[in-house]
Specification:
With about 450 residues, the chain is α/β, with parallel strands linked by helices. It is about 30% helix and about 25% strand. The protein folds into 3 domains: about 35 residues, no CATH class; about 170 residues, FAD/NAD(P)-binding domain (3-Layer(bba) Sandwich); about 150 residues, FAD/NAD(P)-binding domain. Helix 2 runs parallel beside helix 11 and helix 2 packs across helix 12. The protein starts with a strand and ends with a helix.
């Protein structure tokens, strides 16, 4: 439904708003997301070449910023990131069990990454987009671009667990965070684990293509390891909306049975359909469960920024971007790209996937800036999951992907995909080395 803007509100807005370049005048605005012009330019140096603006300083955005400059040194790159401090989501589960410290996750600087890789880090929040005028609108002013990459990650979708009222959503976000978006969630969950005195700790696993498929199971293992080490009278209940563990199932089942028998209880096919926080109870189709504490991962959608900027595919179940699966550009606009966890591909929404995907997209951008093109190639999903903290032992997967028979979209896993599901100390050490390698790949030159 369109919304009417009165004259006073229009004057407060400072003039026309823009949606894909279309002006919205005083009166009734057309349906769709509107981006109000900032009205002033961002305080940035004059571009010295084709300006590539990247929104989002996660794995995807940092990788593209670094490698696009390597692929095409003439790019003048601006990384727009709303955070002023970095902390990774990947490896955060290890912090809960005391295998790493907070410095391991957060001792990485956007400023260092920009200096080491010859681009600009701009601390601002993206608020709108004028595609016709090639302007990104931010809280710190407008930025003209020649190419734009939007890599804002995910948002939670609490409707997926039967929660629609804002008060309950806020209470869940605050009291029982999912732990797969913001650094402050990790701090809260670690405190929960460290202060847990017993009873039932609930870990929920959503369905769909959620961020970090093995992450909730790994977290269950790390919490169970803490319970076991401290001889607490408690257990971890893993409610899984899926009919089976989504990835590395043999390795996780072995850990649940052999390491945490009586501590981890796994219930597949148990999608949450409602939550009663006053009673600390969740409901499924057939049962209800009372918990002492919880981390409730409600399911994901693409970041709401994708919808706000008018880049969403209205037919996407997870509200992901309407882009080319092979080239990542918004359909009908080869100047705007969406990458990372907001893209619609059936790839894992994981750090290594985003990193290798980002290197490919950097090549696409460099080629197109020069009037060329490149052939699609698969990203790689290398993922370690710690299943034991005492001593550190892990399992892993190394996966690639193939196109469908028509060569127009991504199909399934490639034939060279390998699972390493027998836990051992070597993979435990590999988990930490993998993370250190990811940090080097993003922040060092």
């Amino acid at each position: 439904m369109s919304e009417c803007i009165n004259r006073r509100d229009f004057l407060k807005m400072g003039g026309a708003a823009v949606v894909g370049g279309a002006a919205v005048t005083a009166g009734c605005a057309s349906a769709g997301p509107a981006a109000v012009s900032a009205g002033f330019k961002a305080a940035l140096p004059r571009a010295k070449g084709p300006r590539l603006v990247i929104v989002g300083g996660g794995t995807s955005g940092l990788t593209i910023a670094k490698h696009a400059k390597k692929e095409y040194p003439k790019f003048d790159i601006v990384l727009v990131e709303k955070r002023d401090m970095y902390s990774s989501c990947f490896s955060s589960n290890l912090w809960y069990a005391g295998l790493i410290n907070l410095e391991f996750l957060a001792d990485h600087s956007f400023l260092d990454a920009a200096r080491n890789n010859h681009y600009i880090y701009f601390n601002a929040t993206a608020t709108g987009l004028d595609r016709a005028g090639r302007k990104l609108i931010t809280s710190e002013g407008e930025i003209d671009y020649d190419f734009l990459v939007v890599a804002p990650g995910i948002s939670y979708d609490y409707n997926r667990i039967g929660v629609k009222d804002e008060d309950t959503i806020d209470a869940l976000r605050t009291g029982y965070p999912g732990g797969f978006i913001s650094p402050t969630e990790h701090v809260t969950i670690r405190r929960k684990v460290q202060e847990f005195e017993g009873g039932l700790f609930l870990q929920y696993v959503p369905n769909g293509n959620y961020r970090c498929l093995p992450g909730p199971y790994e977290r269950a293992c790390m919490i169970a390891s803490h319970i076991k080490k401290n001889k607490l009278k408690g257990k971890v209940l893993v409610l899984d909306a899926n009919p089976e563990i989504t990835i590395k199932k043999d390795g996780f089942h072995a850990a649940f049975k052999e390491l945490y028998n009586g501590i981890v209880e796994y219930k597949p096919g148990s999608a949450i359909t409602g939550v009663d926080l006053a009673k600390k109870t969740v409901k499924t189709e057939f049962d209800s469960y009372r918990f002492e504490d919880a981390s409730i991962y409600p399911g994901v959608r693409a970041s709401t920024l994708i919808e706000h900027l008018g880049l969403m595919d209205a037919k996407s179940p997870q509200k992901e971007a309407l882009i080319s699966q092979l080239k990542y550009n918004y359909i009908g606009d080869e100047r705007v790209y969406v990458t990372g966890d907001s893209r619609p591909h059936p790839y894992s929404k994981s750090a290594n996937t985003a990193n290798t995907e980002g290197r490919y997209v950097a090549k696409v951008l460099a080629a197109r800036a020069q009037g060329k093109d490149i052939t699609w190639y698969s990203p790689r999903t290398v993922c370690y999951s710690m299943v034991n903290a005492n001593p550190p032992e892990a399992i892993s997967v190394d996966a690639g992907y193939v196109l469908n028979k028509e060569g127009t979209a991504v199909g399934g896993f490639s034939p060279d995909t390998k699972l390493f599901e027998k836990r051992d100390a070597a993979k435990g050490r590999g988990t930490l080395e993998w993370a250190r390698g990811m940090y080097r790949a993003m922040f060092e030159g």
